[in-house]
Write a structure and sequence with these properties.
globular
């Protein structure tokens, strides 16, 4: 069930997540390792250049083996990334797309990354550094990753000192329906 939590709490439902929330301070561009800026770049999604099949391949590579990841077909990419969301493509020095992120600004909280894909896990640290620089350039207070527990960016983020947000902080930040789970008992009476 995806809904606002309040009406369902009294019925035994509770928010749950297969995701981790990590928070990072913005990063000054000059403190970032020089080779990350030269070797990689972020650019806005270009619908003419970035084909759904290419994005789909990156998505499948990143989601393989992650718990409860959604399966997407080619038609699922129409209208992506969605209203209020911003997609950035992560490129290597040859301008080849090696990843992407989908983000949204959360009122006064910072930038929330809700989807990310990488062609290879070795790119995770470089992408994380560029995202922190992106947040700094926009004077946002922090970068927040909301990705599956075992996602490459979450693993890299933990190694780089990302702050784990507690569940009550995550719930307070929620501006949209939450994933809820519970046990529903259905009682029926049948006349025989």
């Amino acid at each position: 069930l995806h809904a606002q939590a309040e009406p369902y709490l009294s019925m035994g439902f509770a928010p749950y997540s297969t995701h981790s929330l990590l928070s990072f301070e913005p990063l000054l561009p000059q403190t970032s390792a020089v080779h990350h800026r030269v070797e990689f770049a972020l650019r806005p999604l270009n619908e003419r250049l970035d084909k759904p099949a290419d994005l789909g391949s990156l998505y499948e590579l990143s989601q393989a083996g992650l718990a409860l990841s959604e399966e997407r077909k080619r038609t699922d990419w129409r209208g992506w990334p969605g209203i209020g969301m911003q997609a950035l493509v992560f490129e290597d020095r040859h301008e080849a797309s090696v990843g992407y992120v989908v983000m949204e600004s959360i009122s006064n909280q910072g930038m929330l990354v809700s989807e990310a894909a990488l062609a290879n896990i070795v790119y995770a640290e470089a992408l994380l550094r560029l995202l922190r620089e992106f947040v700094y350039a926009r004077s946002l207070p922090r970068l927040i990753l909301n990705l599956p527990h075992k996602h490459a960016l979450i693993r890299a983020g933990r190694q780089l000192g990302g702050q784990v947000l507690e569940a009550h902080v995550a719930l307070a930040m929620a501006e949209r329906p939450l994933a809820l789970c519970g046990i529903c008992l259905l009682y029926t009476s049948r006349c025989v």
